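Input.
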Amino acid sequence: MNEAEARAIALERIRELRALNWEDVRVRYLKNPEAVEVTGPSGTTYQVETEAFWDGAKDADLRVIVSVDDGGWRAFMPLTEDFILSRDGSFVDE
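Output.
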């Protein structure tokens, strides 16, 4: 897997997700992971999974995780990027 290409794909997805509000993230991704295939500039197909979890107390902060792999051995240990979104729309620890 081209790690630089996979990271660029993950960071682009993170950028898109950070534009959503807390309620949209909760409804769309909490307990409802989304997996899509994305073709990178090299022609490699990557699976990109987006999921949200409570980061502590229920109905509080959401941890949003994007995982990327190319279907090879990295499927067992995908590249990940994440952020924590508080209910007020701010980002935790930034």
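Strands lie at 34-39, 45-54, 62-69, 79-85.
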